[in-house]
Amino acid sequence: MFHTIRKNQRVLMLIVVILTILAFTFFYTRTSSLEYGKSQGIGTVYGNVLTQETAQRLAENYELAAALELYDFLGSLGGMARDQTAALNNFILNQLIIDHEANLLGVEPKDDQVAQAIADRPIFQTEGVFDVAKYQRFLKEQLAPKGIREQQLEDLMRTSLRATTVRKIITSVMAVSDQEIRNAFRNYQKQDLQVVK
């Protein structure tokens, strides 16, 4: 037996090396892909993976909304949380919910509505009129040092408009016509039936 092993030593070594390489390749790629998947996604919302980058961008919207004095928007999406962390978590999740529900309801603010909402912010106005210099200063002094782009400000205003519109749709009063009242009354009133045998 030793004579056979010694005779085929090179072939056996080659087989052992190939099997070792295949085993390491299989286990390493499988483990690294699992770790990669764990680091990429922190949760799932509506079937979509919520990445760390997306959560960070949505968290930046919290500070941006506070800087823009969108307190109504912060209150409605942040909820009545006891601490800053819970309010931030609620804010992140509620932004995703608002975007999803707005898409289902077909609520999409137009670009001119977003521009008007930005122009209507008191922080960008001088004597009730939009001041481009204040807007540029805000972008340069407030957003640029934090790495926030102008597009993110527009997206935040778009989400704010979506939230306002969805809230109006949900809380609106539904009118019932007189005909619908009569039909409901007929359905629930006592009826006499006669059967012919």
Summed up:
This protein is mostly helical. Helices cover 70% and strands 7% of the residues. The relative contact order is 0.08.
What are the salient characteristics of this protein?
flat, 197 residues, two-stranded antiparallel ribbon, 4 strands, single chain, mainly alpha
Given the helix and strand composition, which structural class is it? mainly alpha
Continuous helix count: 9
Q: Judging from the principal axes of the Cα atoms, what is the shape?
A: flat
Q: Low-confidence runs (pLDDT<50, min 5 residues)?
A: 31-39
Q: Could you tell me the strand content as a percent range?
A: 5-15%
Strand order in the sheet with the most strands: 1-2
User: How many strand elements?
Assistant: 4
Calculate Rg over CA atoms.
Answer: 31 Å
Distance between the termini: 101 Å
| SSE topology string | HHEEHHHHEEHHH
Tell me about the largest β-sheet: 2 strands, antiparallel
Mean pLDDT, nearest integer?
A: 81
Question: Which range best describes the helical content: under 10%, 10-25%, 25-40%, 40-55%, 55-70% or over 70%?
Answer: over 70%
Question: Can you walk through the features of this model?
Answer:
- There is one protein chain.
- The protein has 197 residues and is mostly helical.
- The protein is 70% helix and 7% strand.
- The chain contains 9 helices and 4 strands, in the order ααββααααββααα.
- It has helices at 2-7, 9-40, 52-67, 71-78, 84-105, 111-119, 132-143, 150-171, 178-188, and strands at 41-45, 48-51, 125-126, 129-130.
- A two-stranded antiparallel sheet has the order 1-2. Strands 3-4 form a two-stranded antiparallel ribbon.
- α3 packs across α5 (84-105), α5 crosses α8 (150-171) and α6 (111-119) packs across α8.
- The model is unreliable at 31-39 (pLDDT under 50).
